[in-house]
Amino acid sequence: MLNRKLTDTIDIVELVDKDLLFNNDHSYLAYFHMRKEQISYVRHMYQQALKIKMKHLFALEVSDFVRALSYDIGVYNRAIPQLKKLDLLQQSYKEKDLPLTREEFETRAMLFQILNEIESFLMVKVDFHHAYPDFKQEHLS
Length: 141
Fold this sequence. Notes:
The protein is mainly α. The chain has one domain (2-131): Putative aromatic acid exporter, C-terminal domain (Four Helix Bundle (Hemerythrin (Met), subunit A)). 73% of the residues lie in helices and 0% in strands. The chain is built from five helices and no strands. The two termini are 21 Å apart.
């Protein structure tokens, strides 16, 4: 449903974008395409989370990170500080002891994949703001 609404909005923005002959940097269209790409990463994270079969301490930490991240998502570029926090989290996992069972290994692998999806999610935002540093948010807030 969200994907359908976003696709409909992109269609409208594309029509408006085509009507603007002068002073059009296509930033609004790019913004909605960026959001659509981010939704695909969220969908991947959700699919990975559904596969987790056991409770694990890392799952709580990933959950807390995602919860905090959800409050920091918006039209402004706050992805770089979040990427730094994510990197610290990933590094801390690499320093932990290796899993003892296959089930724990698979769970940690899925959690690590979720962190990789979060990184891609954030990088899309960084790339957008790099391409459109003067992006005007007033129509999106």
